[in-house]
Design brief:
Blueprint lengths: L1 H29 L6 H5 L5 H4 L16 E7 L3 E2 L4 E9 L11 E2 L1 E3 L3 E3 L3 E2 L1 E4 L2 E10 L3 E9 L8 E10 L2 E7 L2 E3 L4 E9 L10 E8 L3 E3 L3 E3 L1 E4 L2 E10 L3 E9 L8 E2 L3 E6 L3 E7 L3 E2 L4 E9 L14 E2 L1 E3 L4 E4 L3 E2 L1 E3 L2 E12 L5 E8 L8 E10 L2 H6 L3 H23 L11
Parallel strand pairs: 2-11, 13-22, 24-33
Antiparallel strand pairs: 1-3, 3-9, 4-7, 5-10, 6-9, 8-9, 10-11, 12-14, 14-19, 15-17, 15-20, 16-19, 18-19, 20-21, 20-22, 23-25, 25-31, 26-29, 27-32, 28-31, 30-31, 32-33
Length: 426
């Protein structure tokens, strides 16, 4: 047994000796002198060793070209609405650029999903790009990060961009649909948050009017006030000045968490105000004697539908006969408040089949009033002499005889003598 243990110990020592000699040999090989012409000519003593160069091992890196990454995304967008993101990676080394390659994922600071990785493809020499669709799931700011990892020829680079994500909204507007000119119509705008977790929108709504009916808005904007858990509303009034159709548009301008939206235009029917026309003329008159006719047009909607509007316009009067004649001009209305008037003079020139004559004033209406008309009768009598001369001769003779007889009697009674004495016949 002692001999067996001694033999085993001897084998172990021999193994360590062999390993040490192998290690020493390797060290000698690594640090061995490198031969040169000078070494070969100086082989005396140990000069070759003192003047030799020692071999060294070092990692030599490859020179990579620099890159720059840029990213742009569509913003703002609403929740669950896709935003298109474009990534560009450019070789910025400046000399002999090469196109970056590779594929990498984009990341978001908020909740959302990407359509896939950014797989670069060359757009021009030295530049590669990709398009990735990002769909946000929550309102807020989403920071999209693009980290290009580099390739065998290019250094890594990165960039990021923020996307503003808002809740979608729906805007409606409604007004009093039937009004008269100068009668106000109230218009109410309602903005609704249509997201899964709605909150009342805030901010302002802008209004505008168009169409054939002109008018004015009490304000072009109104401030929203919460009216329910998912909506807010505000109102303005539209005051039309002319009849026709007024189209009212309402646009919500959005806030920090809500997207803007527009309402379909609401049409208001603006009708003309009711007007009445009256005519009064001087009567009776004789042929060729002027008759003054006073025309009044009145807004009958006074007190019923807003503030009255003064009728305006100019129009001719007509004679419906039987007398003929002329007018001195048209009726040019002027006035204030609910009424406007004019004076027109009619001069009859002839009487045919009686003395009654109808004068008519037909008001055609204006931009705010409906049409109306009024009439007045003028009794036109013939002039005295013309009336006498127009009688039959027998009638004229009788009238003259009676008149002379009356004159003769009056003179006899007053002065005691006859102007005309009759002759007796036997």
């Amino acid at each position: 047994m002692p001999m067996l243990a001694f033999s085993r110990r001897l084998r172990i020592q021999a193994s360590f000796t062999i390993l040490f000699l192998a290690y020493l040999s390797l060290a000698v090989l690594i640090t061995a002198p490198i031969a040169s012409p000078r070494n070969l000519s100086n082989t005396k003593t140990g000069e070759a060793l003192t003047k030799s160069a020692t071999a060294t091992f070092a990692f030599v890196p490859v020179n990579l070209q620099t890159s720059a990454t840029g990213i742009t995304c569509q913003s703002p967008v609403t929740v669950n609405t896709a935003s298109s993101c474009m990534v560009n990676v450019m070789d910025t080394s400046g000399t002999a650029p090469t196109t970056p390659t590779g594929s990498f994922n984009l990341t978001s600071s908020n909740t959302g999903s990407f359509s896939g990785p950014c797989s670069l493809s060359e757009s021009e020499l030295g530049t590669a790009s990709c398009t990735v669709i990002y769909t946000p799931m929550l309102a807020g700011i989403h920071t999209i990060q693009a980290d290009y990892p580099g390739d065998t020829s290019h250094t890594p680079s990165s960039d990021n961009v923020g996307i503003t994500v808002t809740d979608p909204t729906m805007t409606t507007v409604s007004c009093d649909i039937e009004v008269l000119a100068n009668q106000a119509s109230t218009c109410v705008a309602i903005v609704i948050d249509t997201s899964a977790g709605p909150i009342p929108p805030t901010g302002t709504v802008s209004f505008a009017s168009s169409g054939s009916a002109t008018g004015s808005l009490s304000s072009t904007t109104c401030i929203l006030s919460s009216s329910a858990a998912d909506r807010a509303s505000c109102q303005v009034t539209f005051l039309p000045s002319t009849a026709g159709t007024a189209d009212i548009a309402a646009d919500y301008n959005g806030d920090s968490t809500h997207a803007d939206s527009s309402a379909a235009a609401f049409s208001i029917n603006v009708n003309k105000r009711i007007a009445s026309t009256t005519v009064t003329c001087d009567s009776p008159v004789t042929v060729n004697t002027p008759s003054s006719c006073n025309v009044t047009v009145t807004d009958l909607s006074n007190g019923i539908a807003g503030t009255p509007v003064t009728p305006t316009g100019s129009f001719p009067l007509t004679s419906l006969g039987p007398a003929t004649g002329t007018f001195n001009g048209p009726c040019n209305l002027s006035g204030s408040g609910a009424s406007a008037t004019c004076i027109v003079v009619f001069t009859p020139s002839e009487v045919i089949n009686g003395g009654g004559n109808i004068i008519r004033a037909s008001y055609p209406g204006d931009a705010s009033h409906s049409s109306s008309y009024g009439s007045s009768e003028i009794i036109v009598a013939p002039a005295p002499l013309s009336a006498f001369l127009g009688l039959p001769l027998v009638v004229i003779a009788v009238i003259v005889f009676v008149a002379l007889a009356l004159v003769n009697i009056v003179v006899r009674l007053k002065f005691g003598f006859w102007i005309f004495k009759g002759r007796r016949y036997r």
